[in-house]
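User: Sequence recovery, please. Input:
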């Protein structure tokens, strides 16, 4: 039996060192196991001369750390698994390579309860007709698409997740520095979804 199965009509709260996620687990009299997480956020103000949302305030998740493949493998190996971090890293590395190969071959790759990965096309501009369409003029390039699925779907996250404002920061200068929305690729995240 797992730790979670030993809980009866109680709540267990945990704080992971270095993380801003506080998992809370509850088993109710029905025997259903519920898992809740609290995500920390900061308030920020949209800036930019021509931005349509300029001056309005929104919430942005506080991202404290990014786990690369090696760090994820070490994290996974600490979850009562008989597999070493090295073995897990090897499997993840192969999974990444195969996912790239398959999506570039025009296939979707679905990792249950995580995401469906596929290739998307970034258009430069539309063509007036099918005959006028050319890759050089109308296509900027390819992009990776990842759509949440199953237990990681937006609906499920909204059921299980809770938000809590960060305790020590100044919202007036939160736009300078801090985490970059959208994974730090230079694209501004749309706060309205």
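Assistant: Recovered sequence (193 residues):
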């Amino acid at each position: 039996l797992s730790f979670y199965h030993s809980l009866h009509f109680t709540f267990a709260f945990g704080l992971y060192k270095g993380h801003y996620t506080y998992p809370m687990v509850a088993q109710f009299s029905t025997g259903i196991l519920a898992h809740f997480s609290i995500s920390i956020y900061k308030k920020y103000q949209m800036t930019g001369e021509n931005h349509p949302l300029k001056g309005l305030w929104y919430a942005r998740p506080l991202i404290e750390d990014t786990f690369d493949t090696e760090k994820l493998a070490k994290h996974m190996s600490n979850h009562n698994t008989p597999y070493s971090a090295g073995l897990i890293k090897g499997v993840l590395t192969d999974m990444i390579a195969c996912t790239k190969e398959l999506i570039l071959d025009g296939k979707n790759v679905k990792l249950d309860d995580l995401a469906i990965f596929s290739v998307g096309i970034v258009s430069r501009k539309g063509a007036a007709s099918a005959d006028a369409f050319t890759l050089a003029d109308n296509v900027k390039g390819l992009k990776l698409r990842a759509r949440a699925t199953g237990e990681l779907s937006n609906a499920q996250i909204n059921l299980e997740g809770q938000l809590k404002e960060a305790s020590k920061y100044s919202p007036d200068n939160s736009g300078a520095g801090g985490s970059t929305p959208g994974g730090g690729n230079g694209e501004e995240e749309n706060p309205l979804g």
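DSSP finds four helices and eight strands in the chain.
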